[in-house]
């Protein structure tokens, strides 16, 4: 999060621009594929509950109270916001024979398994919510440690490729998870644990087969205090300008994305003149085709950005492509145009997610000592828009609204403007082409 209160920490003497970290050697194909598989496993174990298992359990525990699902997922999102940078800082400062990241993968995976058991056997909605919070802490930390490993190990020329492959893996994992879980709807324990067991196997493969250097010889740094820890949730934009522009670019894109996707079922129902229940099949079809379109954007953008040694232009194109799709949807009056606009936004999303992740690794400050901390702060650029945009969207929906419908056209135009601004913001990055 950007530090707007410069007096919150003791002033430090003016510092020169951070010294670039030494070039990293290329990682092996084994590292790349095991990384993609591990993240596939995490998303299979972690996102399956969000996609189907939690809904089934809420329906069993509190029939007719679907709103409880929102409370549960909201509590989980708040947990990530509160603990993400803290766990990143602790990972940076871990000194062990296993390195800095693997202990958090192992611990997070074990906590993740416990969370699945808690959710599967929960006797009440409160316990179910507690289990989801544990899942955010456990599986979320495994995902964070895997991302931090990329920051530690990936050289610039491989970051786009890996981001594309990981993006593809994490896109198909929720689909596979829902299909897998649908076979066990009648058994709550298997509903949660079968996808989780796949995640455990794939993460364990990464932990066992990918060596990480002993971190016990690394400097320990100054002791943490409550004040110094609070300061690690912020950063000074003037000291890290490229990181700051990348943070702002991600924030703007995900703000536009959230505006575009949150109310899509209501939008489609309004445009097609049917009820929200009747539009479920259309939403499912769009989701299935959207996975293919997003994967194409992620793989194409990631590999090309590495090959051409360019990041900024791909982020700009991704923002423009998403904006084009959002505008087409805004003015579409037929199903083919709605599908065309939606699939266009999916291509833009895939390209952005892969190339932006590579760019974030390119401009990451203090890579050798505080990679986990800065990756945690970068996560705010995704989580804050996802929390705030749905609260602001009704303002645009009511401007010029009529008695027969909301102003979805304006909402989608605003979403398009945000993603274009995202692409423009990243052009201010100077250290990456």
UniProtKB/TrEMBL annotation:
Sorted alphabetically, the keyword list is: Membrane, Transmembrane, Transmembrane helix
Q: Where in the cell is it found?
A: Cell membrane
Q: Which GO terms describe its cellular component?
A: plasma membrane
What are this entry's molecular-function GO terms? transmembrane transporter activity
A Pfam family cross-referenced in the UniProt record is: MFS_1
Classification via InterPro entries? MFS, MFS_dom, MFS_trans_sf, Na/Gal_symport_CS
Major facilitator superfamily (MFS) profile domain residues are 34-433
> Region labeled Disordered — which residues?
1-20
Instruction: Please give, as recorded in its UniProt entry, the membrane topology of this protein.
Output: Multi-pass membrane protein
The residue ranges flagged as biased composition, category Pro residues, are 10-20
Report the domain of life of the source organism: Bacteria
Q: Does Membrane show up as a keyword for this record? A: yes
Where are the bilayer-spanning segments?
31-56, 68-90, 102-120, 126-146, 162-182, 188-210, 251-273, 279-301, 313-332, 338-364, 376-396, 408-426
Q: What is its main location?
A: membrane
- List, in alphabetical order, the GO biological process terms annotated in this UniProt record: sodium ion transport
- UniProt-listed SUPFAM superfamilies: MFS general substrate transporter
Q: Under which name does UniProt file this protein?
A: MFS transporter
Species for this entry: Amycolatopsis balhimycina DSM 5908
């Amino acid at each position: 999060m950007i530090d707007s209160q410069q007096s919150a920490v003791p002033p430090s003497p003016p510092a020169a621009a951070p010294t670039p970290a030494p070039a990293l050697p290329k990682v092996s194909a084994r590292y790349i594929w095991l990384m993609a598989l591990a993240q596939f496993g995490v998303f299979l174990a972690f996102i399956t509950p969000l996609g189907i298992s939690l809904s089934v359990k809420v329906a069993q525990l509190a029939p007719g109270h679907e709103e409880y699902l929102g409370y549960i997922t909201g509590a989980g999102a708040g947990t990530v916001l509160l603990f993400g940078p803290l766990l990143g800082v602790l990972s940076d400062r871990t000194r062990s024979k296993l390195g800095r990241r693997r202990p958090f993968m192992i611990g997070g995976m074990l906590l993740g398994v416990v969370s699945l058991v808690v959710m599967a056997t929960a006797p009440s909605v409160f316990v179910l919510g507690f289990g989801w919070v544990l899942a955010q802490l456990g599986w979320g930390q495994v995902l964070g440690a895997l991302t931090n490993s990329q920051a530690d190990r990936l050289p610039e020329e491989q970051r786009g490729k890996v981001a594309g492959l990981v993006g593809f893996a994490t896109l198909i994992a929720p689909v596979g998870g829902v299909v897998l879980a649908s076979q066990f709807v009648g058994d709550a324990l298997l509903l949660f644990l079968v996808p989780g067991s796949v995640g455990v196997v794939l993460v364990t493969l990464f932990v066992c087969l990918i060596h990480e250097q002993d971190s016990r010889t690394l400097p320990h740094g100054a002791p943490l205090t409550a004040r110094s820890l609070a300061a690690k949730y912020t950063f000074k934009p003037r000291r890290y300008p490229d990181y700051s522009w990348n943070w702002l670019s991600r924030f703007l894109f995900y703000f536009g994305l959230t505006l575009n996707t949150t109310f899509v079922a209501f939008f489609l129902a309004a445009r097609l003149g049917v009820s929200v229940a009747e539009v479920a099949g259309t939403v499912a079809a769009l989701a299935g085709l959207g996975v293919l379109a997003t994967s194409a954007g992620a793989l194409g953008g990631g590999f090309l950005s590495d090959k051409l040694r360019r990041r900024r232009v791909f982020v700009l194109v991704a923002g423009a492509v998403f904006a084009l799709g959002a505008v087409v949807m805004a003015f579409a009056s037929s199903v083919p145009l709605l599908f065309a606009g939606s699939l266009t936004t999916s291509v833009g999303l895939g390209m952005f997610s892969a190339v932006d992740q590579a760019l974030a690794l390119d401009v990451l400050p203090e890579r050798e000592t505080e990679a986990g901390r800065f990756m945690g702060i970068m996560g705010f650029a995704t989580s804050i828009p996802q929390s705030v945009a749905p609260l602001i969207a009704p303002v645009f929906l009511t401007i010029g609204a009529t008695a027969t419908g909301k102003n979805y056209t304006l909402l989608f135009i605003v979403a398009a403007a945000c993603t274009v601004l995202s692409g423009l913001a990243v052009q201010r990055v100077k250290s990456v082409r």
